[in-house]
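COURSE: Structural Biology Practicum
ASSIGNMENT: Worksheet 4, Part C
STUDENT ID: 0417
INSTRUCTIONS: Below are two proteins. For each, the amino acid sequence is given first, followed by its structure token string. Answer the questions at the end about the second protein only.

PROTEIN I
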Amino acid sequence: MKSLTVIADNFATAGLSAVPKSSVDFGTRSVSGDLVGNVMTANPLSIDPAGLAGSGPHQETRLWVAVNQRPNVYVRGHLLNHHVHGPGENRNLVPITGSCNTTMETQAEHVIKKAVIGEGKVVRFIAKAKGKQGPRKYIPQESELPEKMVLNAVELEEGSDGKWKTEGKSLLKDKEIPNTLPKDEPVGTVHIEVNLSKARRAQLDTVEGIGPVLADRIVKLRNKLGRDFHTYDDLKGADGIGDDMVDKLRDNEWVKLH
């Protein structure tokens, strides 16, 4: 018991005396009468949460309710990740696409978590939701979503005067994560993946820009080749399909070759 008491006393101070307490400011903007996270400045950010408690999202805004009409598209993204003390409150949340959130985690936030949690570093970390989307017809509130997320982070070093200064190495330098929205279309629109190498005429006809005439020509070209299409450029063998159409098909996430 004496040994455990010594260990407990050591745990009470271990790792904390050498780092400053985290200090985090949240900047917000008003959307539809609610405050939405806009910028987060952690200076410093350390393993000491200083009263902050990281958590999953547990607050909603009118903006979130509106854009969440598109199921499985958006998430309430943290400006400060919950693993490094980011609260799941509106001041720290901004709706972004799931792909934007995943890219933030894999290309940026893991750098911060590794430095602060894994290595006990002290950093200055700034995350901003920048820009706004263009006009949207079916869910107008989507126009209020950020165009991109921009992240900056640098290690801090303790000076001889005991102050933590920005003389360490840069961790993130104007790291931009695009927040690319889905197609502006009615809520509930169902998409079916079309395989150009296998689809029948009726299925090809459903692809935007093809129609029944081009669908028939694509099938005839495929039969003439006697094989699957190897590249999108193979489609130029069909009368009426030029570079513009090939580019549109290549960019259509619901059109595949194999």
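PROTEIN II
(use this one for the questions)
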Amino acid sequence: MMRSSVLRLLFVLFLVSKMHSQNDTLPYILVLGIAQDGGYPQAGCTKTCCEMAWKNDSVRKNVVSLAIVFPKQKKWWLFEATPDISRQLRMFAKLTNSQFQLLPEGVFLTHAHIGHYAGLIQFGREVMNTKELPVYVLPKMKSFLEKNGPWQQLVRIKNISLRDLKIDSVSNIAESFSVKPFKAPHRDEYSETAGFLINAGQRKTLFIPDINNWNSINLLPKLAECDQAFLDGTFYTADELPNREIKEVPHPPVINTMQLLKAQSDEARAKVYFIHFNHTNPLLNNKQTRSGVIKAGFNIAEEGKKYY
């Protein structure tokens, strides 16, 4: 009896070991940031929502960013160049045991709001002085970077090399890695705003960190097409900014998104990971609110976590 139990235990340990070994070679998403453009805590915020993060640096959160990692090929790509990119490059190296080169193979940008492209300055001659680092952009974003300083200098002296993306067109970036951008309207003062369907290995990931509302795209077919979806969760409710007009900073509140998807299957809801949290969003630090989202079948993206 004891011998039989030992054999079963050894078999289970073998299966677990094999599974971990397989995961070591599979492409994955590494979340490098979950906060809105201002980060958490946010500059100028002296309210209770930020107090904990000001007092304890371990509570702070980086601006939203994803790394797409291919362990077998020892390559990775970065989505968004945030104001926290210095920390994020270091975080990536630490979480991957420095087994990859410091710089990604390329950077994908969604749009021209500060939290999503301002980190490009770190690639300039004053800091990293990179050499033709590929930066993948839609047409208006490309024009914005080419015509406005200091970004135009990055292009002119070839710190970065702008690569064209087209709406609703698949770009094959590398073996087993393709990206399909689509319009995700969001103010769009300086550029269009992209969402991305990322195909890495056998997994498809939807990435929509910013959008005005879900009326502007048909979310359900996109959700059906992917295995996991990182969606705009900037505000939990629409009344988080009592002194500002929400129309100035439009985003679909998390409670509205959950209501929209309430009738969907457990499997569909489980694909959703909310991301891009404003400093006022209780999903950053309120256990009861977080628990409610999870009980409803949804997920909350976690900084520093791998998603296969």
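ANSWER KEY EXCERPT:
Q1: The two ends are 38 Å apart (CA to CA).
Q2: Residues 2-23 form the longest helix (22 residues).
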